[in-house]
Amino acid sequence: MSRPRFLPDNFTLMLMATVALASFFPASGVPAQWLNTATTVVIVLLFFLHGAKLSRPAILAGIGHWRLHLVITAITFVAFPILGWSLRPLLEPLVTPDLYLGILFLCTVPATVQSAIALTALARGNMPAAICSASGSTLLGILFTPLLVGMLLHVSASSSDPLAAIGKIALQLLVPFIVGHLMRPWVAPIVQWMGTSIKVVDQGSILLVVYSAFSGAVVAGLWSQMPLPAMAGLFVLCALLLACSMALCVFASRRLGFSTEDEIAILFCGAQKSLVSGVPMAKVLFPASMVGSIVLPLMLFHPMQLMVSAVIAGRYARRPGAADTERH
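RESULT FIELD:
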């Protein structure tokens, strides 16, 4: 029996189930402290594996395409925040103040890695450039996201010192990434042997972090402060941000004379936001009582971008000459 087209993918369904579990059975007290420790461990493991999977030839093949990387970086860390900030008169009345802060936070986080690369491959785009740019976006986000949060959100974060926040994020994300890459000659065979089962670690870590984040928010009264009209407005705003960012990526690519293969990489690396990086960053940057509402827009944006991008990638893949591009 084929899967209904209207049904979300399995990971989206698991995210929804995790939020429901945290809503009815939130972790608190000592179990919540154990859970926080466990989430830190799995995030470190996740980025260690990310570093181990990134090959040196892929880095060298993609790093020379500096114009493409500059465009993607500008869209991710300049255009997105400006868009979220400039649309404030339209955005803020549709949602609660905390959800609007979540929208701004969404605009500051780096691009995805796995899905951007997978979608670029599906669409027959510039794979080496996508690998390099998506991975670089994650590393740049360790520096840029805390600084942008301090500039745009003006809220009391867990750490009043942006440099301290950058240090905490770097310790959780950057250090294991670098260690994993340096240990690639020994770890890569294990990663290849695990094959697609490594996806369980990837998705499981996100689900654990989401459960931890929402547990703290639910204990602090998240859903009692979240009216249904605000949730409907949030859905509209995420769709608007996604449409604007995708249109900007395509317009900039064609205006600057990039090839179709480069346009694909720019679209899927520039218009997406990373749940993997965003949730642990939010846990460092915000008090536990705020994290749930802060990451809620990102959680809605994430499956939306994947579903829309999958359709667009399929259309790119069917373009004339796409098969020849893949062979070469």
